[in-house]
Amino acid sequence: MQQILSEDDEKTRAAEFSKVYNAHQKKLDGLAQIIKQYLKDRSFAQLSILKENDIDPTKGGTAARLCLDHYYRNFVLYDLVTYPVQYGTGAGEANIVKVFRVSPEDAKSIINERAPGEQRRKLAGRALMSFGAFLDQRWRKNDMLWGRLDGAERLISVLLPDEKDKKIRQDLIDEAHVSILTEEIRRGDVDEISQLLSNALAHSEPASEQARNLRAFVESLVAGKDLAPAMDAALRQCLSQPEEIWNYYKRKFEVDRSLDPDNAVRLISRATAITGKMLEGLAEKYHSENGKRVGAWVARLGTTFWNMIAIAVPQSLGNILFRHWLGLLYLFSAVVIIAGIAFQSVSPLGWQLLAATVSLHVLTFLVGDFIGGKHRWLRAARRFGILLVAGLIGFGAYFVLDRSLKFFSDQDRASIIGVITGFVMLVLLGFVEWRHWLKNFLRSPTTSFSYRLLGGLTIAIAVLVGTLIVIGPADMIGFEFSRAASIADPFKAHVGVDRLRIQLGLDFALIVAYATMLASYCVAGAKLFWERRENLAYRFQQDRQAARAQARTESNPAPTDAKDPIAKGSLRLKLFYALLVVGFAFAGLQWLAAIADASENIGLLLYLKDTPPPNFNGLELAYWSATVKFWLIAAGAIYAAIAFSFGAWKKLGERPTTLKPTEVGLRIVFVAVSLVYFGFSAYALFVCRPSPQQCSPQLLPEIWTRLFH
Predict the structure, then answer these.
(1) In terms of C-beta distances under 8 Å and separation of at least 24 residues, what long-range contacts does 394-398 make, across chains too?
(2) Can you give the residue ranges of every domain in the chain?
(3) Confidence of residue 155 (pLDDT cuts 50, 70, 90)
(4) Which pLDDT value is given to residue 631?
(5) For the chain, is the Cβ count within 10 Å smaller at the N or the C terminus?
(6) Vertex 617, ends 614 and 621: CA angle to 5°?
(7) What pLDDT shows up at residue 401?
(8) What's the rounded Cα separation, in Å, for the pair 541 and 251?
(9) What is the pLDDT of residue 136?
C-alpha cells in the first residue's frame, strides 16, 4: 500500500496497483474470501440486549432493539460512506462537540470564587506558581478533595445543562457532594482526627463551650484504653448528619495556606545553600573570581541559617544547649562590665559582648516564635518597625528640607513638614497593616473574644483615670483647648508647671491603655456583628434547603432567585459585613487618636518649657491634636456602644438553657463604659473647645442643679 500511495498521479498509482495485484492475485483472492465469510457469519458477536432474559416486551423496547439491530447489521455500509468523508476530506466529525471546563471557578455550588466579596479560595497548591502542593501533604489532600467535589459538579452539569433541569441538577450535585464528604470521613484514621481536634483546640478560646467539649473528648481518648469506641462515636456523630459537613464547607471552609514554619525555614535555608553552591559552580566554570566569592558567601549564609534553625526550634536539643551557653555569655558579659569599673580598658568589651549576646538572643527568639507558629513577637516587631520607619522618614524629610531647600530654611517650617511627612507615612503603613489584619480575619473568622481581657483593661483604665483625677487639675481639658497664651498663662500660673508636667507624663500611660481598650472594644463589637451575620447566613441556608425539600415532596418547581431566602437576606448580610469593616477601621483609628493625644502632650510640654522653641506654637498643636483625638474617640466609643447593646439584646433573646448572665452583664458594662467615653468626648468637643476658659467640671453640676432643682 505504501508503494502504491507514494505515486503522485492517478494513472501511475493504477499501473502500480495492477502490477502488485497481478503478482499476488491468488493470495489476495484467498484473503477476500476469508473476510467475506467472517462478515456473513456474525455468531461470534453476542449482544447482551438480544438475550431472552433482557427482552423488554413494551413497544419502546422493541423499537430500541430494532434500531440497534439495524445499525449493528449495517455498520459496515455506513462506515464505508462516512469514514472517507470525515477523514479523507476536511469535513471532520458530524456530531457537535462541546468543551466543558472543569476548574474551581466553574464549580460554584459550594464556594463561588467569582462572587463579589468572596475571600475564600478552595485550592492551596496554587502557591509558588502552582508548585505549592509539593511542600505540604495537607495541601495535596485538600486539592484532591476539591477535585472530586468540583469534578462531580461539572459532570452532572454537563449531563443536565438545560435550565428546566435546574432543580434535579442541583439536587444531584448536593447528593454527590454529601456522599464524597461522607466517604472522606470514613477513610480518616485516628491520627488525622486527633490532629484536627488539636488544631481546633489551639484556635479556640479557653473558656468557650467549644473548647470545653473538644478538651473533654480528647481527654477521653488519652485517659482510657477505649480509643476505638470513642473515635467510633465521634465518627458516627459526623456520619449521622452528613449535611452538616456540607454546610461547613459551604459556610466556613477556608484552607490553611500557612506552611509548617519549621519545614518552611528549613526549606529556605536549604534553598539558600544550594543557590550559593550553584553560583559558586557557575563562577568556577566561567572563571569568575568575584562570582566565586559571592556564591561562597551565599552558601555560608544558608549554612548559618540552617544552624540557627537548629538552635531556635523550641524544646530541641540544640535549643536547650544554646540557652545554656547563652546564659553563660550573659554571665560573662556582666563579669566583664563589672571588671570594667576597675579597669576602664575592658569596659567597652563588656558592653559590646552584651550587645552581641542580646542581638543573637533576640534573633533566635524571633525565629523560634515563627517556627512555633504563634507570631506574637514577630507582629510586635513588625509594628515597632512601622513606627520606626515612619519616624525615620519624618526625620529624613526634616533634614532634607532644612539643609537643601532655601525656602524651607526656617526651622519651624522644616520641622512641621517633617512631622506631616512622618504622620502621612505612618497612616499609610498603618492602613497596610489594618488591611492585612482584616484579610486575616476574613480568611479564618473567629467570633470569640476574651471577656476577662476586656474587663481587666477597663479596670486598669479606671485606676489610671482615678490617679490622674487625684493629681489634678480637674479642668485639664480647658488647658488642652486653650490655643492662646492669654488663656493658658493664668491656668499655668494657678496650677504650677511641675504639677502639669507630672500630669502630662502620666497621661502617656493612659494613652496606651485607653487606645488598647477602645480598639479591643471595636474589634469585639465587629465580631458580634459578624457572629450575627454567620447565624443569618446559616438560617437562610436552612430555609432554602427546607424550601427545596418541600418542592421535591410536592413536585413543585424550585424557588426562583427572587424568592430565595438568601437573596432576600443578602442586604442584611451586606450590612453586617459593612459593620465588620467599619469596626476594624474604628479599631485602627483609636491608635491614630493615641498618636494625636501624644502630639497634644508634646505640644503642651513644649509650651511649658522655660525657653520654648522660637516660632513654634505648642498650644496650636495641642488644640488641633485634641480635636482630632476626641472626634476619633467619640466615633469608636459610639460604635462599641451600639455593638455591645446589639450583642446584649441578642443574648437576652436566646433560650434560657443557653443564656449566660455573666456575658450579658459584661456587655452591658461595656456599653456603659463606651457611653461614658462618648459623652466625655462630646462634652470636650462641644463645650470645652468653644469656650475653654469656662471648661470646668463645675459646669455639669450647675446644669444638673438648674434642670432638677
Answers:
(1) 394/418, 394/419, 394/421, 394/422, 394/423, 394/425, 395/422, 397/421, 397/422
(2) 2-88, 141-251, 446-533+588-708
(3) very high
(4) 92
(5) C
(6) 140
(7) 46
(8) 9
(9) 75
